Amino acid sequence: MTLSDTHETETQDAARALFLELTGRQPDGLWSAPGRVNLIGEHTDYNDGFVLPFAIPHRTVAAVGLRDDDRGRVRVASTFADEPVEVALDELDELFPTTLGTEPAVPEWAAYPLGVAWALRQAAMAGAAAATGDARGIRGIDIAIASDVPVGAGLSSSAAIEGAAASALNDLWSTGLDRTALARIGRRAENEAVGAPTGIMDQMASMLGETDAAIFLDCRSLDANLVPLGVAEAGLAILVMDTRVKHAHSTGGYGERRASCELGAKIMGVPALRDVSVDDLPRAQQLMDDVTFRRVRHIVTENQRVLDTVRVLREQGARAIGDLLVASHVSMRDDFEISVPELDTAVDAALAAGALGARMTGGGFGGAAIALVEQDAVTTVSDAVAAAFAASGFRAPALFTVTPSAGAHRDA
Ligand code: GLA
User: Fold this and answer.
1) Which helix (H) or strand (E) is 165 found in, with range?
2) Per-residue DSSP letter, 131
3) Could you point out which of 78, 103, 184, 192 has its C-alpha 20 to 30 Å from the C-alpha of 314?
4) What are the beta bridge partners of residue 31?
5) Best mutation site among 47, 158, 202, 251 for ligand 1, i.e. most ligand atoms within 8 A of its Cβ?
6) In the chain, where are the structural domains located?
7) What is the DSSP string of 213-233?
8) What pLDDT, on the 0 to 100 scale, is given for residue 8?
9) Which atom of ligand 1 is found nearest the CA of 46?
C-alpha cells in the first residue's frame, strides 16, 4: 500500500463513519477531490493569465446519499465540526449569494458544500429552463465530509471540499456537467457563498489533476494542457514547507491585490493584465503610482515565467526550472508583497541547504512554500528549514513531499 492509498483509506473510513452516524445507513457512494500545489503562476488566474498547478495526494472525501424522506432538504456534516447543518433546498437561494458585511447565515465550513449545492442546483435549473438539461433529479441529500488536506496551508483545502461535493451531487442529481463546469460551480461557491474573491485555478487543479503531470491552464479560455513534470525521474522531489501561519482569502490582502490589478488594467486600457506584456512595462511605469506598478509588474512577469517554465520543462526537464521558481518568489516578496517572514525563511533556508529552487505557493500571507530538491537531500533540506524556524523563534513548520496526483473522482 502506498502512502497515498493510506491517506485515502483513512479519510474514506472517516467520511463513511460520519455518514453512518448522521443517517444510520450507508452512503450511496464516496467521492473525493485533492488539494493542490501551484508550481508557478501566482495571482495570475483572476488576471486572465496562466498558471501551472498540480493536484497533491491529500484529499477530501464526501460520503453522500440521497434522502428517502424526499422533503427536499440538504444536510452537511464534517469531521471538523461538532454539529451538522441542515437547510431546505429552496432556502439555498435565500442564503446565497452572501451579502458582504453581514453575519454569515451558516458556519463557514458549511458554506462550501452548501454553496456547491446552491450553485449546481441553479445551473441545473437554468439548463432545464433552457431545455439543455434536466433538474428533475435534484432531491434532498446528506453529505458527510472528511479530509486530510491541511486547512489554511495554501494547499486548497476549500477547492478539495468543493470538488468532492460537486462531483457527488453531479452524479446523484444526474446534472451531467463536465469537469470544467464543475470547477466553475466550485468557484461560484467560493466567491458568492463563502465570500472569497478568488480565481479558478484551485478548482481546475482539483478537478483535472493527473498523476505525474502539472496542469498548464489558460485562465481566460480555460484551455488546459497536461505538462509531464518528470520530477521523480530526474531524481528530484517537491518538498512542501507549511509555515502553519494561517491565512484567509475572504478578508484583507487578497482582495486588495485583486483591486490593484483591476486598477492597473484599467489604466493600461485593457480588459485584464493578461493583455499587458513585459515590453509594455516601461509605459506602465509612466502611467501609474509605484505600488500599482509593482503589483502590475508581478503579474506581467509571472505570466511570462509560467510560459517560460512550461517551455523549459518540455525542452530541458524539471532540473532546469529552479531559477524561475526563485524569481517568482522574489517578485511575490518585493513587488506583490504577499510573502511573510516565515515563508521567506523557508525559501532562503531551503536554497542555502542546496534546493534547486523554492517559492511560496498559493495566495500568500501565510500558508506554504515549496522547494525543488534532490531526492537524497530531502532530509538535509528539511532539517535546515526546521533549524532556521527554531532559530527565528517561529512555530515548527510541517514538512512533507508531494507527488502530482489524480483529480476528483468517484471512489466507491
Ligand atoms: C488562492 C486562490 C486562487 C489563486 C491563488 C493565487 O489559492 O484561490 O484562485 O488566485 O490564491 O495564485
Assistant:
1) helix 157-172
2) T
3) 184
4) 62, 410
5) 202
6) 3-226, 230-402
7) EEEEEETTT--EEEEE--TTT
8) 53
9) 10
Are 34 and 11 spatial neighbours (Cβ–Cβ below 8 Å)? no
**Distances from the Cα of 400 to the Cα of 197, 259, 357, angstroms:** 29, 34, 16
Nearest to 359 by CA among 112, 92, 38, 89: 38
Please state which CATH number belongs to domain 3-226. 3.30.230.10
Ligand 1 is surrounded, with C-beta below 6 A, by 38, 42-43, 45-46, 198-199, 201-202, 249, 362-363
pLDDT of residue 198: 95
Which stretch of DSSP H or E encloses residue 164? Answer: helix 157-172
Q: Is 391 helix (H, G, I), strand (E, B) or coil?
A: helix
**Contact (Cβ atoms closer than 8 angstroms) between residue 189 and residue 116:** yes
Beta strands in 89-202 (DSSP E): 141-147
Identify the CA nearest to 212 among candidates 359, 95, 54: 54
Ligand 1 centroid from CA 397, angstroms: 21
Cα distances (angstroms) measured from residue 113 to each of 85, 143, 158: 10, 8, 9
Active site residues: 202
What distance lies between CA 305 and its chain's CA centroid? 20
| CA angle (154 as vertex; 346, 375 as ends), nearest 5 | 50
- Which tens digit of pLDDT belongs to each residue from 297-335? 999 999 999 999 999 999 999 999 999 999 999 999 999
Domains 3-226 and 230-402 share a fold: no
The CATH code that applies to domain 230-402 is: 3.30.70.890
Q: Write down the residue that cell numbers 522531489 correspond to.
A: 237
Query: Grid coordinates representing 313?
Result: 520543462
| Gap between the Cα atoms of 178 and 163, Å rounded | 12
Torsion angles phi and psi, residue 24, rounded to 5: 75, 10
Q: What share of the chain is helix, strand, coil (3-state, %, to 5)?
A: 50, 20, 35
Instruction: Determine the atom of ligand 1 nearest the C-alpha atom of 158.
Output: 8
Backbone angles phi, psi at 246, to 5 degrees: -75, 145
Q: Give tens-digit pLDDT for 376-392.
A: 999 999 999 999 999 99
pLDDT for 173 equals 96
DSSP 61-73: EEEEEE-TT-S-E
Give the position of cell 511605469.
285
DSSP structure class, residue 26: -
